[in-house]
């Protein structure tokens, strides 16, 4: 039991660190009205192991600290990630994991940009949704391919194995 707890903490720390590094290293495209936050690809991990929601939520909160929106982005950007993770946990197919982050980020981050920077709400929603879609569309194919590799599933400690083809 103790080893499992240590493994979960360690794995979540690695996931959080990866989210932070991908976001901050790619800062010019990770924040703002038009954003392609590559770290969002990691949200697919929650489909395979629910507890990764912890690492992703913590990673997002820390990664949002240098955002121009400040603590507002820490609170609400992280909320979008948390809500996305909570929905992804219960989705039956990998392909469906694309939708929650697009919807939550488009509206929550779109509202942040509207209220904090005064940018047009619906334009924000569209731009954020487009950036999320591009990143998650690519991420889907990466994780779809990885899901066919039993070694990958073992390494991440997946709670499920994908035996059937994902509907495209």
Question: Could you characterize the architecture of this molecule?
Answer:
The protein is mostly helical and 168 residues long. It contains 8 helices and no strands. The chain has helices at 2-25, 27-30, 45-48, 52-63, 71-88, 99-117, 121-147, 150-155. The N and C termini lie far apart (39 Å). The model has no long low-confidence stretch (mean pLDDT 94).
Q: What class, by secondary structure content?
A: mainly alpha
Give the N-terminus to C-terminus distance in angstroms: 39 Å
Query: What count of domains describes the coordinates?
Result: 1
**In percent, how helical is the residue content?**
55-70%
Report the mean per-residue pLDDT as an integer.
94
Order of helices and strands: HHHHHHHH
Shape descriptor? globular
Radius of gyration: 16 Å
Oligomeric state of the chains present here:
single chain
Sheet with the most strands?
none
Q: Compute the number of strand runs.
A: 0
Q: How much strand content do the residues show? A: under 5%
| Tally of separate helices | 8
The stretches of 5 or more residues where confidence is low (pLDDT under 50) are: none
